[in-house]
Amino acid sequence: MKVPQLDFAKLGGILPVVVQDAQSGEVLMQAFLNQEAWELTLREGFAHYYSRSKGRIWKKGERSGHIQRIVEVWIDCDDDSVLLKVHQEGGAACHTGYRSCYHRRLDGERLTVVGTPVFDPAKVYGGEAPER
Amino acid sequence: MKVPQLDFAKLGGILPVVVQDAQSGEVLMQAFLNQEAWELTLREGFAHYYSRSKGRIWKKGERSGHIQRIVEVWIDCDDDSVLLKVHQEGGAACHTGYRSCYHRRLDGERLTVVGTPVFDPAKVYGGEAPER
Lengths: 132, 132
Hints:
2 helices, two-stranded antiparallel sheet, mainly beta, Ubiquitin-like (UB roll), homodimer, 8 strands
């Protein structure tokens, strides 16, 4: 499969990817792609990201089982950002157990946590820090 | 106004911001914030970004008039990514005139442009490259 060229140079080999629930339209998370993660995502049909903290490719859900099946792939006007519309296995994208990584809303000067966790991270990750 | 602390260090002073239409849920664009753009966005209630190409703060719509009024602000689990839900003045966020910067969908190995431009960039920007 021929993979569309993206502009990874602006951020030194990575670029931001926005991940949206294909059904609800909820923005689930934002991560980073490098060339290898981009190719794996397209070829396998499941989201792969580049983990800055681990310095390696990471298949989303590789430990939790909460994988993301690719439904649609959109590329932005400058070829330097990608939008993935996904089916989120397990219903939650965030390593904290919430549906979305964006589960804190700014109300005035305070952050309000909205919703409740879908899973218990201690049970899913067994106390070990997950990839992200 | 006290502004929540974000982790700008991971990307050397900037972090990705995802912009979503508050009404339709469409993801309009992804840009970058630095500390100053973050403060301006919260204090003024209109989206401000950091332009990597221009090396300066940019009020979205400063030339086109297509400003983004902040409806909701969400912060991610690691304090290193922000989701803005906005009202998009003029109906289009992209400098090409399309509603969304993500107006090209990957179908197999081809990119399909979806939708039609809301405005003519030549008329809005007069042939000069817009901020982005």
